[in-house]
Every structure is written in structure tokens, then in C-alpha cells.
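Extended Data, record 4-hydroxy-tetrahydrodipicolinate synthase
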Amino acid sequence: MNKFHGTGVALVTPFNADGTVDYDGLNRLINHLIDGKVEYLVSLGTTGEASTLNKEEKKKIWEFTAEVNNGRLPLVAGIGGNDTAEVINSIKIFETNGYDAILSASPYYNKPTQEGIYQHYKAISESSQLPVLLYNVPGRTASNVSPETTCRLAADCKNIIGTKEASGSFDQFNQIMRDKPADFLLISGDDPVAMPMISLGAVGVISVIGNALPKQLSDMIRLSLKGDYTAALPKHLDLIEFTRMMFAEGNPAGVKAALKQLGVCDDYVRLPLVGVSDGLRKAITAETTRITA
């Protein structure tokens, strides 16, 4: 599973002023990331505003992304939800051509027990032709996937190959690293802690800020994976303020503002999300200019 080592980027979905999907912008974004030397792409995760896209839009975006990528990088499709049967149906009808794995966020809102989470993912695993990455993001789902459940799934379901961990808990990261099978991938789901997670044994990050700064981020991640933390640390510290700005008024509004400054795509988002405030936009413009100068 070395194809998922390094920097993965959770692609934003560019929109036009009328709210339609901006495929020209998505084309530029994909090539921007490939030129920036990231290791793989994630289509329609949380950062892609998947919750506000209908089934037809999702299908077209997945097909378009695979076509533009044209096999240059591994591709992951975000397919999750809080209705297990619907997630399974979405996976069964998903056109897998050009894709290497599924990333599936744990069920939100229902607040299932750990046994419910286990059975949810076990059913997904049994239905998927592609390898599956778990995605634990309790700040969004209001439900944590415990280390015990993660490692139980890793042991019992051979096509569950890793987890994108965005719990923010180093106690949880430690337990997963201690108890997981040797080939099970721990991937950081939070940009600010990617480097320290790699020091524990994580194999990389699925990033938001990488949309805008693919080279800067992936350079730091590669140095960290080599164990050269002396060289990686200044690069990590240089991204702290930019990263803080990206999440100050919500994701992906922040990173879309940076992408607009870079000329990759516009910064429109779909309600209930709104764009960043004028003050934050000015700060993002200044920081983006500084880093990319």
C-alpha cells in the first residue's frame, strides 16, 4: 500500500458563480496538485463539499477526475454516510475505473455504539471491490471510532487497509500504532499534526492545505517520512499560520480563498457554507503570497 504513503490531498470542488460545478477549475486544480508532486488525490471528501452535491454531480466529478488524472496518481473516492444500506448501494454502483480505494467517514448524527460502527464498516468492507480507508473525524460526526474498534476492523477485514485519523488525540494515535496489524496504515487527517504523527509511525496525511500549497506541504511530509526532522521542522513551522487561516472560518472556504489568489479556481462555496470575511481574505492573500513568493 505504498501508493498511500506521503501526501494525499482532499480535493475541493470548484464552483461557478451560479453554483454549478466548475470543471475547468477542477482540471486546473488536479494539474496544480500533480505538478506540486503530491502522492495521491481524494475526490469528494468533506473538503469537496460532497454533502451538497447530488448523485449525478458526484458521478460526473468522479469520472472527470479520473479522466484528467489519467492514471498519473492513485485516486481515492470519498463514499460515506449515516445510512449503511445507502452507503453500500453507492459503493456497489460506483464506477471503479481509475480508482484505487474508498475513503468512508464514520456515521454521523446517529451516534452509533462501537459495535454499530464495527458492523457498519464490516458491511462496507464486504461490499467493496476496492480497498477501504476508515475516516474518523469526531469533530464532525459527534462519534469517535475508538482505537479498539479501529484495530478490530483492521484485524477482521482484510480490505480495510488504513484509517484517516482526525480525532486530534495522541493517546488514540499511540494505541492504534501499538495494537494495529503491521501493514495497516495510520494516516493523519489533520494538517497541523501530520509531522508529529509521522514521528509515531503514521505514513502521511490526507490534506486540506495541500490544495493550495502542494509542493511546500509534500516536501515537508517527505522529509518527515525520511526521518529528517531537522530539515522538516522549519517547513512545518512556516505553514502554521497559513494552516490556522485555512480553518479560521471553516473548510473549504479558507483554502478556496487561497486557490483564488493563486489563480487555480474561484472561491464560491454552496450554502450552508459561505465565503470567508474580507479581513480573513486579505490575511490569506498576504500569507499565500509570502509562502509562494
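Summary. The chain has a mean pLDDT of 97.
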